[in-house]
Design goal:
- It is built from three helices and two strands.
Length: 41
């Protein structure tokens, strides 16, 4: 799922996914934290 697709989800769904700990975020093939991914930094 891309950042744009994630941001299009309803807020409750985004929170549920983040709190569930099942999401992994990647930038340039390297895993990053949710905080880094959502900040875009």
């Amino acid at each position: 799922m891309t950042r744009t697709e994630f941001e299009r989800l309803p807020l409750g769904e985004r929170v549920r996914l983040l709190m569930g700990g099942t999401l992994k975020f990647f930038r340039n093939g390297q895993e990053i934290t949710a905080r880094q991914a959502l900040r875009g930094a």
